[in-house]
Specification:
It is a single chain. The protein is mainly alpha-helical. The chain has a domain at 63-161: Four Helix Bundle (Hemerythrin (Met), subunit A). It is 58% helix and 0% strand. It has three helices and no strands. It has helices at residues 2-26, 64-99, 106-137. α2 packs antiparallel against α3 (106-137). The longest helix is centred in the middle third of the chain and has 36 residues, at 64-99. The protein is flat and about 75 Å long.
Length: 161
């Protein structure tokens, strides 16, 4: 009785160890330059196909001054875009909340959707202004090789699905 129990336990433990190691071996990997990993340490980084410090392949040829200026512009852009994104998110939640009601208020939903559309237009214009400013510093930054780093960003907002 004890030997059968020990065999079952040993088999289960062996299976768990083999499954764990094979899963880790077949995964994308952790650490430097793995898929969706950062350049310098283990953990999530700037994203797939990103170049120098997550700024895209074009950024590796920037001078320190150009890199600092682009970073300053990015910081300004994200600071300006954050309230717009939050406002869009809140209005979408309000629309979803209204739609979940037994008798949704069509007028309120329509008004909220118009506000979301207006805010999206403002965000698009802000994004375009940012890209044009970066293009003055780095003419090759907008177009092929620009990378994925200057889109909608993480957090509340757009989904690819």
């Amino acid at each position: 009785m004890k030997s059968k129990r020990a065999q079952i336990l040993a088999f289960g433990l062996s299976f768990a160890v083999i499954f764990t190691f094979s899963t880790l071996a077949l995964g994308h990997g952790w650490g430097q330059r793995g898929w969706m990993m950062g350049n310098d340490a283990a953990g999530m980084g700037p994203g797939y196909h990103m170049g120098y410090n997550g700024r895209g392949a074009w950024a590796s040829s920037l001078t320190e001054e150009q890199a600092a200026e682009v970073q300053r512009l990015r910081d300004e852009f994200f600071q300006a875009a954050d309230p717009l994104r939050r406002n869009i998110y809140e209005k979408r939640l309000a629309i979803a909340d209204e739609l979940a009601k037994q008798n949704p208020d069509r007028t309120r939903i329509t008004r909220l959707q118009k506000e979301v559309s207006k805010l999206n237009g403002e965000l698009d214009q802000l994004r375009l202004d940012f890209r044009l400013k970066v293009k003055k510093i780095v003419p090759d930054a907008v177009g092929p090789g620009y990378g994925h780093g200057f889109g909608h960003g993480m957090g509340p907002g757009y989904c690819w699905r």
